[in-house]
Amino acid sequence: MTREEVNSNDFGANGHQGTAIDITFDFRSDANGRDPDSYSPTLRRYHQLLWNKPLPSGEVFELSSSKPGIYLYHHSALGEFRLSSDSVIPRFTRRPTMKPIIEQLPNQEIAFFNMIAYTVGGMMIFPSNQIDHKMTINAARGLIGAISDRFDLTLECIRRHYIDLDSPLAPTLSRYADFFALFEDFHGYVNFFLLDDLVTEEDVVKYSIPFDGFQSSPFPKDVENYKEYRRRSIEFIEARNQGIQQLRY
Q1: DSSP per-residue string spanning 181-232
Q2: In the beta sheet, which residues pair with residue 199?
Q3: What is the rounded CA–CA span in Å between residue 121 and residue 222?
Q4: pLDDT tens, position by position, for the chain (249 residues)?
């Protein structure tokens, strides 16, 4: 499903018509000092508005926020899915090894990057249920060193999942194969989650740092490298925000 097809859907049938999404809203502002992914009511409402829509099959991925202890929930003939939010664009400002680089940047640049990363264009949902007591996708993204929370690298792993290629996240993604099957293929996943600004027309991921097949460190190596990472990340968030703003609810 393309962004244009999403625009043409009648979201009013799901009770969303006339509801605006503020693409400038910083979800930290209503999380009361806690993790916005868990505690921002505005973020949860926006996720529900954005992703409660038809899948490539035409079936609606209806999301509920009323099940106790579960962020968002779907249960139908398609399956049962528990989902959580994740801020997917890391700034690396709290990572000790990045401190010598971060200290060379103006405070206002750091503050702006932190702010825009917590707007809706920088947010995603992933399955939140543990399978066989192993890591969820959110946990694996952060703990597997070859990924280190990078969303472009996560998306590359998802691309490889759809064509049965190995990646650092392959074992984790395979545990949630039923979730990824909802979108049929990588193109369907990208279009559903409005990620087309992070891939080319040939569905090749646009990396924020030159990519060498998960061989090098995922972290920017110097100030100029970090600035390029920051620029590309902000461009993606801003473009996705603009796409979200064009949708009807």
Answers
A1: HTT-SHHHHHHHTT-GGGB-TT--B--SS---SS-S-SS--SHHHHHHHHHH
A2: 205
A3: 26
A4: 234 333 333 333 333 444 589 999 999 999 999 999 999 999 999 999 999 999 999 999 999 999 999 999 999 999 999 999 999 999 999 999 999 999 999 999 999 999 999 999 999 999 999 999 999 999 999 999 999 999 999 999 999 999 999 999 999 999 999 999 999 999 999 999 999 999 999 999 999 999 999 999 999 999 999 999 999 999 999 999 999 998 866
Q: How is residue 163 written in tokens?
A: 């064509």
Q: How far apart are CA 8 and CA 159, in angstroms?
A: 26
The single-letter code of the amino acid at 94 is: R
Residues in the chain: 249
Q: Nearest-CA neighbor of 88 among 112, 108, 118?
A: 118
Tokens representing 127?
Answer: 């399955």
Q: State both tokens at 145.
A: 């060193």
User: Of the candidates 142, 149, 23, 30, which has an alpha carbon nearest to the alpha carbon of residue 91?
Assistant: 149
